[in-house]
Amino acid sequence: MYDVNVDSIRSRLACLPELAQALSAATVSWTGSLTEGLAQERALHLSAEIATDVGHSLIDGFIMRDASSYEDIIEIIAGEGVITERVAVPLRRLVLLRKTLVQEYDKWPRSELHPLTAELPRILMGFSDQVEAYLRKELS
User: Fold this and answer.
1) What 8-state DSSP symbol labels residue 25?
2) Contact 113/70 with Cβ under 8 angstroms?
3) Would the pTM of this model clear 0.85, i.e. be above it?
4) pLDDT digit string (tens) for 74-87?
5) 103 backbone dihedrals φ, ψ, rounded to 5°
6) What are the pLDDT digits (tens) for 6-35?
7) Alpha helices (H) in the chain, listed in sequence order
8) Running DSSP on this structure, what letter comes out for residue 68?
9) What are the catalytic residues?
10) Which residues contact 20 (CB under 8 A, 6 or more apart)?
11) Which DSSP letter does residue 83 get?
12) 44 exposed, middle or buried (CB, 10 Å; 0-12, 13-18, 19+)?
């Protein structure tokens, strides 16, 4: 009945442990160096891309309502019960960063540790677990 690209979703989710590890490491040893700043920037960017790519795949595959924005992707999957509000709230904040990370990167404060960096490792792993649970429930 549904045409869900489970392999694509799982491939993207498989990237999250490394991103969570990188974000955790940045939080623990932050000095504000250019290399750390660029690594944080890329980890935040990839985290946002994975959350929206996975969300979009779920929306398409399970025929949920169309998303009008990146933030709406998170709203829809939270509303459909894919993820909890506890995971959705920081993911909404993350996807709001996407525009700056992708289009306004010249304004990104690379020497500063972003507040989401410390929170995201737990959130990303929760996101992955909740998406997997949703896939098992809906596709069994």
Assistant:
1) H
2) no
3) yes
4) 999 999 999 999 99
5) -110, -30
6) 999 999 999 999 999 999 999 999 999 999
7) 6-13, 16-29, 34-61, 70-79, 85-102, 115-139
8) S
9) 98
10) 120, 121, 122, 124, 125
11) S
12) buried
